[in-house]
Amino acid sequence: MDGTAELLEIDRRYLVHPLHHPEEHKAPLLVTEGKGAMLHLADGREVIDGLAGLWNVNVGHGRGELADAAAGQMRKIAYASAYVGATNEPAIRLGEKIVKHAYANSSAIYYTTGGAESNESAFKTARFFWKIQDKPNKTKIISRMHGYHGVTMAAMSATGMPAYHKMFGPLMPGFIQVAAPYPYRWQGNQECGIGAAEAIEKAILAEGPETVAAVIAEPVMGAGGVIVPPESYFPKLRQICDQYDVLLIADEVITGFGRTGRWFALGHWGVEPDIVSFAKGVTSGYLPLGGNILSKRVHDAILNAPLDRRYMHAATYSGHPVCCAVGLRNVEIIESEGLVERAAVMGRRLIEGLRHELGELPNVGDIRGLGLMAGVELVTDKGTKAPALGVGVKVAREAMSRGLMMRARPGSAEPATGDTLCLCPPLSTPDEILDKIPQILREAVTAAMQ
Ligand SMILES: Cc1ncc(COP(=O)(O)O)c(C=O)c1O
Questions:
Q1: What is the pTM of this model?
Q2: Does domain 3-59+338-448 have CATH number 3.30.470.20?
Q3: Which residues of the chain have pLDDT under 70?
Q4: Which of 46, 204, 368, 426 is 20 to 30 A from 239, comparing alpha carbons?
């Protein structure tokens, strides 16, 4: 047995993977190296990383600067508590940078170790905020169908994808999901953005505004199929949140750190959230790190709380020095290489390429995106938009055999949503590699649909 085969046998014996099923783990990919937008597999293949890892490797693979940042910090001090009364330089320097790149109302950072934990912290922080305002009953969270917020208990309860609930229910009480601003599939009488924002208003009124703490929304839904809201949606949602005293949590775990062509995405629509959840791109996935960006009024609630009502929230690895040192160096790379601006330019190029190569194919219903994240929704009939189901995995397989690694969001018959091919390459992907993606996908879709 060669080294790889032996390794994989031990893997199957001892590991349980995210979304595990043994049927789908018979021949797992073993990635051995990465350079820029390319991955090297143990079987000798080289493929384009069309999803930048899991939407996170913004600066690309194999960055020696990030390895050096981690090693340098580990040699100085690898771990030190950041609990109240203690701190460390990388956490401080990174926090200042993030606040400066975020929204005009952004004021402070609370660190976590990943996306779901950031959302858990955001929910708790929203509850804390209202308790400080002497509104202790404002605890409920409203989210949207197709939203993905992670799969810890509360994050899963906000996630609007039933496949993640099926074997782990019931959901936590006080989580309400409403229609998403999904232009391609919108069926309401009103314009999609306004109608979808008003669906949230209806939910707030049905629950009672005095019981609702926050609305959580990804600026662009990622795992749900790269769903870009209409221009009208977030301004209207912000107005509704203000009207009913409800906080707006922006889940920018994917959209943060340049992905959409801005440091943070709600700026596309001139909207500022009360809390931002971030993770993934903050370190480009080189180490686990996440956090919340708190707006001034939320920060003030923590600063002005009486001692006996303090922000009693914590994690051992909040403000981890090594993770923050890597985050700091990663943000410096994004700055110095102009990767935010590049995401905007390359994103337009990717969408144009996809429209050119795939637009006329009979099974391609919708091509959408913002910055360097794009989705291609598959249908069986362009006129009726009848969803194509079960083909996304085949397209992914065909793409892989042609040198492109990507993922497909599985669709469903009810509500009707076609399988959607998701693309989110590193922001540093060179032009000539980016241009191959639509070409490979055209061949892959054509082959899979035969
Ligand atoms: C928007 C969004 N929020 C939260 C998460 C959960 O992050 P994690 O897997 O780090 O818990 C993800 C992961 O894909 C995500 O895309």
A1: 0.98
A2: no
A3: 1
A4: 368
